Structure to design on (425 residues):
């Protein structure tokens, strides 16, 4: 379904593509940084245990 | 006789305009200290390439030294990547590790990239060029150069000049936008800060783990993220002090010098003197404004749900212009109330902006080829 949607976007106009990029881009940055947020907490907890 | 005077007879009015542009950039670098490390070499490169016969670019079928540098350092993306190694070695992520929640401001303030991309498309640029223009909003010169060299090489000059100029103009751009979006009461909000000890293992593990995550989530972003994190690992390992110092000083200085003059060489009169250049420079400003607004509005939105309110100005620090943005915002808070101290939070958000801008660059690099077949 996603592949179909992207295929439709590929044949669509640039404005459609830019809107898609805006939504997916902003969300994507949030998701990746949320992963980093979780990793920092995880590493902080794990490495603190090891230190003590 | 004609050959003797060829230097004078082959100058056009467009070349003269480019000399003025080059001199203006040198003036801004020397007198106003606007990113002098970059703007001075760019300005001089712009003059060199527009001198009669443009021998530094090409002469009698032979590539000149600036074209050789462009092919070797920009076309191959080598110079911006080497700069990332240097930046990584300069980056101290400790403020972020102390307040990990600040990382989300580094995401919110990338809004300017994607909204400007849309504006650029609406103004008639194709998606690739629009993406390269939007990335000016990363407030991160090397990322802008990297993306522009991939998607809009013809506009590398104006995009780089806009990126570096606006980075140095953050103290002028951000305060009015922040004031417009916040009340005095909001700007004076005090935030608690607790000093937390950051384990050394975390400092070493972070660049490695981030590289793996970037490699799996967005493989195309690995050159950007990987080089930054490589530089940071050299710094944080503690075992490579000489290499860390070399990356922060010698490598950074040499590559910056070559990068600047090479970008200047892309500012040939025919290519640079177009209405598109003015539009790009204007949109760079729009990108910085949207970045700032995105961060501040995100912080205000969070405050709707939080008991302990965040000073919304912190959101503006989510851009990559480090540490200028943090300093500007902290100063604004102190102007409202001398007892409002938000420097550590601002620095944390500002460091997050450095990570966020690279991830945003990776997103653009991943999405554009997917949409443009």
């Amino acid at each position: 379904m996603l592949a179909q949607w992207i295929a439709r976007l590929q044949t669509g106009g640039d404005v459609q593509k830019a809107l898609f990029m805006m939504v997916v881009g902003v969300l994507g940055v949030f998701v990746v940084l949320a992963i980093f947020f979780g990793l920092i907490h995880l590493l902080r907890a794990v490495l603190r245990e090891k230190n003590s | 006789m004609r050959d003797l005077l060829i230097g004078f007879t082959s100058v056009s009015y467009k070349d003269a305009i480019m000399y003025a542009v080059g001199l203006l950039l040198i003036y801004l670098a020397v007198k106003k200290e606007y990113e002098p490390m970059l703007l001075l070499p760019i300005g001089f490169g712009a003059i060199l390439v527009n001198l009669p016969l443009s021998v530094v670019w090409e002469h009698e079928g032979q590539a000149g030294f600036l074209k050789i540098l462009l092919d070797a350092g920009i076309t191959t993306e080598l110079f911006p990547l080497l700069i990332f190694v240097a930046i990584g070695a300069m980056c101290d992520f400790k403020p972020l590790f102390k307040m990990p929640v600040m990382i989300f401001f580094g995401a919110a303030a990338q809004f300017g990239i994607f909204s400007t991309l849309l504006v650029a498309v609406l103004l008639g640029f194709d998606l690739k060029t629009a993406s390269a223009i939007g990335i000016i909003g990363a407030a991160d010169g090397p990322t802008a150069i990297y993306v522009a060299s991939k998607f809009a090489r013809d506009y590398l000059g104006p995009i780089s000049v806009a990126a570096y100029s606006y980075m140095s103009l953050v103290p002028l751009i951000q305060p009015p936008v922040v004031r417009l979006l916040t009340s005095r009461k909001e700007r004076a909000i005090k935030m608690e800060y607790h000093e937390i000890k950051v384990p050394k293992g975390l400092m070493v593990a972070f660049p490695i783990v981030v590289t793996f995550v970037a490699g799996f989530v967005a493989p195309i972003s690995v050159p950007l993220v990987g080089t930054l994190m490589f530089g940071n690992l050299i710094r944080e390992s503690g075992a490579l002090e000489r290499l860390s110092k070399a990356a922060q000083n010698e490598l950074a200085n040499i590559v910056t010098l070559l990068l600047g003059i090479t970008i200047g060489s892309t500012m040939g009169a025919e290519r640079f003197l177009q209405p598109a250049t003015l539009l790009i420079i204007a949109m760079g400003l729009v990108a910085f404004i949207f970045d700032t607004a995105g961060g501040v509005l995100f912080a205000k939105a969070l405050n709707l749900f939080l008991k302990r309110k965040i000073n919304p100005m912190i959101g503006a620090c989510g851009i990559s212009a480090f540490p200028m943005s943090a300093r500007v915002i902290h100063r604004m808070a102190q102007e409202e109330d001398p007892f409002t101290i938000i420097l550590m939070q601002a620095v944390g958000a500002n460091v997050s902006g450095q990570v966020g801008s690279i991830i945003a660059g990776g997103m653009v690099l991943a999405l554009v080829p997917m949409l443009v077949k």
